[in-house]
Design a protein that fits this description.
Shape: globular
Helix content: over 70%
Order of helices and strands: HHHHHHHHHHHHHHHHHHHH
CATH class: Mainly Alpha
CATH topology: Amino acid/polyamine transporter I
Strand content: under 5%
Number of strands: 0
Length: about 500
């Protein structure tokens, strides 16, 4: 075949790139979680994460992607080319682990939007079955969901992309609805916010006592990093751009500015309709259902501003919550059918061919790594069972799931950012696109980003220990440690196997 058959079409321009970055990164559900955790004080940390994580990591991912645009291994190829296969395997395994944690967490959380859509509010905490409490019932449903999705995804279902696209359209609609109604309420109330602003201190000190200490505040950066995660998926598109050297830096800068402003403005707008102590700091509100509680309150407040009765306003709030529930359930469903196979397929096909037994890497007639997917399902099921039957309240349960997801998502970036200087200084690697040309500037930026990542992860793990929240601490810390041990063990086994073959 000729080279032209492998050359991607140069179709992506600046506007398209910005939209791609926005739809990949910006998440509607991130801002109510931020408001719940720190109130208005979360705004400064979202801006901080944009400057010291999102912006520099975006340029790094672009360089990685342009240099290794033909590699099938994704971030494994990036780290391998920079610092070698062992570190690449451990770093990529942690990246895969972040998606495994997402499957664990979301398989349990997906029942909240479904319950909200059916009942108008989150009723999962009242569920029981044959003497089992709500957490155990949710755990069993999550296990059945993982088995269900794995089974049908392994059959190569393609219509699920239509559901995902529909969910994306609804997500845009819910963002527009939120912005318009919040601004209407702000103007109608004479620019008085439900969450009062008492000078600059309001944007520095957390409304949540749990995030009042310096360590807790810095640990919140992990939440902000999670909100900006996903740039590694954009690194491989530079070869499809018409003018990557000019447009990719511009796209990163503009996207960082737009997304940071929208996140900050969204957090502020939640305070327009919701008072932290009255709405967020209420019994039954947790990180799993906060989005639907806030949407219910938004609709209720909107009804009151229109002069409607309390009963009618309550109905509007209920239907706002139902809409958000339907939207998130569809988005989660579409995401599940993609993420149940895409990360693990990329991982096992990207790592050395002889690393895995043949039956693990074998694809079925639908192009799916079915055997690997069932091994993955087994691991996820065991984790769900351990967490849901480990004994905790609903709020602690969802806090643990969220913390596990955030820490696991942030960890792979330590490898990507840490490996970058070796990649940058390796002149043997052909780099079509280079942003960090000045070595001193490069080392400064990488050092700051690496320190921000390290401290945020470290403090997130330490905070539960300081608060004597042993259950939270165990799951926050044990997840990354267990996955790291597994990764080191698997690669050590691979090295021993090769030494035997070579001897």
């Amino acid at each position: 075949m000729s080279d032209t058959e492998y050359s991607p079409k140069k179709t992506i321009q600046l506007g398209t790139l910005i939209m791609m970055i926005f739809t990949t990164i910006f998440g509607f559900g991130n801002t109510p979680i931020a408001f719940m955790q720190m109130g208005y004080a979360s705004i400064i940390w979202y801006i901080f994460a944009a400057i010291f994580f999102f912006l520099p990591s975006g340029f790094m991912m672009a360089e990685y992607g342009s240099a290794f645009n033909e590699a099938k291994g994704g971030i494994y190829s990036w780290i391998d080319g920079a610092v070698g296969p062992r570190t690449a395997f451990i770093g990529t395994f942690m990246w895969l682990a972040s998606w495994e944690t997402w499957l664990v967490a979301t398989a349990s959380k997906i029942w909240i939007p479904l319950s909200t859509f059916i009942s108008g509010s989150d009723k999962t905490q009242t569920w029981s079955f044959m003497g089992l409490g709500s957490m155990q019932v949710i755990g069993l449903l999550a296990i059945l969901w993982i088995i269900f999705v794995t089974f049908f995804a392994s059959k190569g279902i393609n219509w699920i992309s239509k559901i995902s696209s529909f969910g994306g359209t609804m997500m845009i609609a819910i963002n527009i609805l939120f912005f318009l109604l919040s601004i209407f309420i702000l103007v109608a109330s004479g620019f008085h916010t439900a969450e009062p602003v008492h000078g600059i201190q309001t944007f520095i000190h957390s409304a949540n006592p749990a995030f009042a200490s310096p360590i807790a505040m810095i640990s919140f950066v992990v939440y902000a990093i999670f909100a900006y995660a996903g740039m590694e998926s954009m690194g491989g598109i530079t070869d499809s751009m018409k003018n990557p050297k000019r447009d990719f830096p511009r796209g990163i800068l503009i996207s960082t500015l737009v997304i940071a402003i929208l996140y900050a403005f969204s957090i502020f707008l939640w305070g327009v309709s919701a008072n932290w102590n009255e709405i967020v700091n209420s019994e039954g509100v947790n990180l799993g259902n906060i989005t639907y509680v806030m949407m219910n309150n938004l609709g209720n407040t909107f009804g009151h501003q229109l002069g409607l009765s309390s009963a009618t306003s309550a109905i509007i709030g209920e239907w706002f919550a139902r809409f958000a529930g339907l939207d998130m359930f569809i988005v989660y469903t579409g995401s599940f059918f993609v993420l149940i196979y895409s990360p693990i397929k990329s991982f096992i096909l990207g790592t050395p061919k002889d690393f895995w037994p043949e039956h693990v890497t074998k694809l079925n007639k639908n192009g799916m790594p079915a055997n690997a997917m069932w091994y993955q399902a087994t691991l996820v099921v065991v984790l769900i069972f351990a967490i849901s039957f480990g004994g905790s309240t609903a709020q602690a349960f969802y806090n643990v799931l969220t913390l596990m997801g955030n820490v696991s998502t942030a960890l792979p970036y330590l490898f990507l950012v840490g490996a970058y200087p070796f990649f940058n200084m390796n002149n043997k690697i052909k780099k079509p696109y280079v942003f960090f040309k000045n070595k001193y500037f490069m080392w400064t930026v990488v050092s700051i980003s690496f320190i921000v990542l390290t401290l945020s992860i470290l403090f997130t793990c330490v905070q539960p220990l300081l608060d004597h929240q042993w259950h939270d601490a165990f799951w926050t810390i044990s997840g990354p440690i267990i996955f790291t041990i597994i990764a080191i063990g698997l690669y050590s086994r691979y090295e021993r196997k090769h030494k035997i073959k070579l001897s």
